[in-house]
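Reply to dn_fold:

You asked what the input looked like. This is it:
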Amino acid sequence: MSVWLPSAPCTPRACVEATGSATALPRAVLRLSAVAALLLAGAALTPLGGRVPAAWTRRWCRAIVRACGVRVRITGAAAPTGGLLLVANHISWLDIPLLAAVRPARMLAKQEIRRWPVAGSLAARGGALFIERDRLRALPGTVALIADALREGTAVAAFPEGSTWCGRAEGRFHRAVFQAALDADVAVQPVRIRYRLAGGAATTAPAFVGDDSLLASLWRVVSARGLTAEVHVPAAIEPGTHPDRRTLARAARPDRPGGAGGPLRAHTALVA
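and this is what came back:
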């Protein structure tokens, strides 16, 4: 199996909580309409590319998540400017706009996403770096491509688990993408994503795992009530502080001993 094609044991039947009811239908339809309107607005702006202010992109990404009925809470340090590798645990398709709400970046994405309706086109126009996960021989070229983007001062976002997990179970961070940060001599910005219900309990409802369909996952989110996305941004890992990709990957895992989840150097909170 390719290093770009790790798998998770999570499945919709075993891991994902049901949401909504018949009474949630009107609310869900309104939310879907709002999401569609925002996607169309984003599609209209994508030809502008880098001329769109980063602040606008962050607001648009938060608006997408909020239109789905999910409150957004971002805490921690501000992400650095310049070349930067953003890495996060991976639970849902919602993670993508949440990472962009921390800092707009070129997303490292599997080739299959290019075929998604609307979202695939937006990702391509937004500069996504598409990878062929089932081709081991493509790995060195992919790492070099990421490193080149980082050297140009671009932020690149990746999910090093390589697969979505339900949030209660999680995978390890695979090391290959961290080699690009070492080669480009840039900082790594860990991000920790969690989803909770109104009472504070963790939930797997937004998870997009196994053989789940994007439509089924989207419907669970828009028909749910009281979902909150918590995005924690520890201090960035500065270049030169870790000698190899193994230790860098371990340090970038915010919830692991010795990882980036320790005391914050700065603290901010944004709730939408």
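The mean pLDDT is 84.
Hope that clears it up.
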